[in-house]
Amino acid sequence: MSLRFICFGLVACWVAGLTSAMPATDPPLQPFGKYGCGQHGPKNRACWRDNFDIFTDTSTKIPDTGKTRTYDLTITNVSSFSSADGVSKPAMLINGQFPGPTIVADWGDWVKVNVHNQLQHNGTSIHWHGIWQKNTNDQDGANGATECPIPPGASKTYLFRMHQYGTAWYHSHFSAQYGNGVVGTIQVNGPASANYDVDLGPFSITDWYYETADRLERRAELVSNGPPPDSDNILFNGTHVNAQGGGKYSRTTLQPGKKHRLRLINTSLDNAFTVSMVGHTFTVIATDLVPVVPVKKDTLFMTVGQRYDVIIEANQKVENYWFNATLASSRFCGTTRIKQPAAIFSYAGASKTKKPTNPGTPVNAVCSDTVGFSPVVKKGAPKKEFLKSQGYLDVNLETPVIDDVAVFRWEVNGSSINVEWDRPILEYIREGDFDWPREANVIDIAQKNVWTFWVLENLGPVPHPMHLHGHDFLVLGAGDSQFDRVAGVNSLNFDNPIRRDVAELPGGGHLVIAFQTDNPGAHLLHCHIAWHVSRGLSVMFLERKGDIPKTVNLDNLEPNCKKWRAYEPTAVWPQSDSGL
């Protein structure tokens, strides 16, 4: 049973990742001169095109490619799906596959995605995890916040621009639905902070349950059931062997002597991993969608939703090597029934059938974010502004009795989020009505282009992967106790700290973040453990509500909301959780 489900409060504990860090061997990055950077290629990845390079601040400048990439995603029910690991289970798939198709675009492209909901009895929505959605907040895919769900038999077109580059993913935000298979990866091509020869593309790692996610979520609500069950398997790019030996290992081929870019993504519902590759190190070049100065790590902790772009150099013997995903023994970062989750990385010329023989050194799996990264484009927040004002988000796990049954409810500052599928917050803004329900957990941020600071406090032992929509954020600091409101500021880093859109809020401590109000819209900040957000662990930042009608096309809401409102009274499965 996963202890990650049971926790009593929100104040976080930050323990530095116990991975070794070594400087990368490539020459240090240097800004290009007035004559530009040259041609993008294996020997010059820092350059892109048209005077855009790794030093370009993506928040203020992006290429105008003039291109729109179009994709069609059809979501269907499958009563028996066994391609993942040989065990048959019901699933919801995108275009008949798991994970769904990879969306590939270049930095600056527009992306048009037609989503067709062919599920019989479920709505859906697609959130583009990590994509800022600047001036397109209505395309964020967060039902109850930025849109109504797409009803069965209906379609919706999402249109947005890639302001960033790197690795992201997409998933349903309709309750815990993505755990049934409604998930895929995103690759946005652009410059890189280190050179490489081969781009291997996205490499997703996820927990896998034979029971449907909606049943697990409903079971997890009841206090009498305790924590949700262990995951039945861990999949690598959608496949793995099962506990009885069926299924197959995921295999990736490396070219001897070449440097390979691998785009790691944790797309789990609950499980976090420490990843490593026997005999090899990772040169990290990006955290989520933020390019970083290259740094070598033996292991990387990956909580739910996080991404790392890494370079693996094939400089060892021509053999097969284990790529391991290890769970912490504390059980606070999820548990699985599979004993040794692993994929196989094979040098070209090695046996295509034999398993690796070297198990490698046991990994000290942790339950805290890996640290030691420096963003290439430097940003900092003013300490004096933090001293003037900061918000506090205290989270508690309550167990109210409803209809004589004790249930779990997560509260942020005393309130569990519960969104209205038929009336998202952007609809309130469209109508000029600011009287939304208290349980929408709206936090109004009115000022333009200022830094806003938030201290998350966790009173329980279980960590939470906290994800912010519409922004990445500065991780100013964290600790294993409640934040000291007098002396704590001295422990924070305001000078180019790590930036990302998911950070682990450790148990029993605090996490301090900051972001700029440069993107009007309704932006969720939520735990990415499905059982936690479905029971209330989220707030919604309403950023510059007066500017939303000027920057976001709110008329886009009505066609889909009209369809949903017509369907909802006849829905077989009415909303039974937070809706997220």
General description of the model:
The protein is mainly beta. The protein folds into three domains: 3-14 and 378-546, Cupredoxins -  blue copper proteins (Immunoglobulin-like); 18-23 and 193-370, Sandwich (Immunoglobulin-like), CATH 2.60.40; 30-188, Immunoglobulin-like (Sandwich). The protein is 7% helix and 35% strand. The protein is built from six helices and 35 strands. The strands form eight sheets. The chain has a seven-stranded mixed β-sheet with strand order 1-18-17-20-15-12-13, with no helix packed on it. Strands 26-23-28-33-30-31 form a six-stranded mixed β-sheet, with no helix packed on it. A hairpin with a 7-residue loop joins strand 4 and strand 5 (89-94). It is globular.
Our estimate of the beta-strand percent is 35-45%
> How do the strands of the widest beta sheet line up side by side?
1-18-17-20-15-12-13
How many helices? The count is 6
Based on helices, strands and strand pairing, what is the structural class?
Answer: mainly beta
Low-pLDDT windows of residues: 1-23
Globular, elongated, flat, extended or rod-shaped: what is the shape? globular
> How many angstroms does the end-to-end distance come to?
23 Å
User: How many structural domains?
Assistant: 3
State the helicity in percent bands: under 10%
Catalytic activity: 4 hydroquinone + O2 = 4 benzosemiquinone + 2 H2O
Protein name: laccase
Keywords: Copper, Disulfide bond, Glycoprotein, Lignin degradation, Metal-binding, Oxidoreductase, Signal
Enzyme class: oxidoreductase
